[in-house]
Amino acid sequence: MNLTLNPIWIVMQKEAATSLRSRMAVATLVITTLVFTLLPIGLIVATNLLPAAALTKQNGLSDANLQSLLAVYPALVGLPKTQVIQGLLVSGMQPLFLLIPLLTPLTLAVYSIIGEKQTRSLEALLATPITTRDLLLGKCLAAALPGVIAAWVSYALFLLAAVALVPPAIFTQLLLQPAWLLALALVVPAAAAAAVLVGLIVSARASDPQAAQQLGSLIVLPVIGLLLGQVTGVVRLSIPITLLAVALILAADAGLLLAAVRLFGRETILTRWK
């Protein structure tokens, strides 16, 4: 099939052009990327400046707690206490990069439907022969891709800074951990698609962008749980766990797409929105 005539590709092009003209969309993407890049870098700089005693007291870590966490993070065994705490904090901050492909695409998805409802530009699109599935897939991909690319670029910039700021053992064993890199490669796009589909479902039924975004933002709760689990050592990423998570998220994506198609209600949008 000619890509230029593919309805999904046409919708993606239209959505991309609309997003680039939106200051809100561009600002959300840029600010989110910068914040989630600079935050862990600032954390590393702080741990390099503070003595081990201050870091231990500030984070409420006793020697017993450190020993139990070292059993979960064997790559840190034998390092000075300051570097151990630094490695634990950096590892705990890694799930923050999973928030980028959730927050930014969610905002784009919510305004993609509700904004077009309010400007009545959605009606012309719904009057075309395009199927609801192709329409939603096009919107989903157009909203998800910027968040996915932003997450990858953000982590790449973080790695460039970390080379000069952390010991080689932390860099290679934690920041370049195969399970984590696999999560970046696979979980990020799968999670971004889930966030967008949730946003599309909510916004298709809602009339207020802020209310829709607040409801859709509940999808970040699992990532926050992962972050807390990483910090406490309860959750430890591995390749099997990562692959299982990807499989579960992809299954959820398929279910969310079916639900989005069923709940979209293009006839209702055409008749109710004046």
Indicate the structural class.
mainly alpha
Main beta-sheet strand count, sense and barrel state? none
Distance between the termini: 37 Å
Q: Which regions contain 5 or more consecutive residues with pLDDT less than 50?
A: none
Shape: elongated
Rg measurement, Å: 21 Å
Order of helices and strands: HHHHHHHHHHHHHH
Tell me the number of strands. Answer: 0
How many helices in DSSP terms?
14
Strand portion, in percent?
A: under 5%
Structure explained in plain terms:
This protein is mainly α. The chain has 14 helices and no strands. The protein starts with 6 loop residues before the first helix and ends with a helix. α10 runs antiparallel to α11. It has one domain (3-272). The protein has helices at 7-21, 23-49, 52-58, 63-72, 81-93, 100-119, 122-126, 132-165, 168-175, 178-205, 209-216, 221-232, 239-263, 266-272. 80% of the residues lie in helices and 0% in strands.
